[in-house]
Amino acid sequence: MQKIIQKNIKQRNLFYEFEKKRLILKIIYKNSFFNYKIKILVKQKVFSINNNSSITRIKNRCILTGRGKKVFRFFKLTRHKLKEKSLQGCLPGMFKTNK
Description:
- With 99 residues, the protein is mainly alpha-helical.
- The chain folds into two domains: 1-59, Helix Hairpins; 60-99, CATH 4.10.830.10.
- Helix content is 53%, strand content 4%.
- The chain contains three helices and two strands, in the order H-H-E-E-H.
- Strand 1 and strand 2 form a beta hairpin.
- Helix 1 (2-30) runs antiparallel to helix 2 (36-48).
- The longest helix is centred in the N-terminal third of the chain and has 29 residues, at 2-30.
């Protein structure tokens, strides 16, 4: 599981590194004021950027276990660990109800 967690962290860092560059190139490509030749060159640069830096490649994973299903985005924990940590009182705003 540690390998999956490290891979997820690496993909997130790649995304943050290339996010600005990718957005600038897309704005230039979609702008109608630029010449067609410039747009082709910009489109080639967009394709040359690492594919793992795309936001669609990132999967939400639990930061403790690496599990990829039933992950709550706000806490970045799976439902099992979320319940465990909330019962321990480690999460702000979550507590056990007395019904």
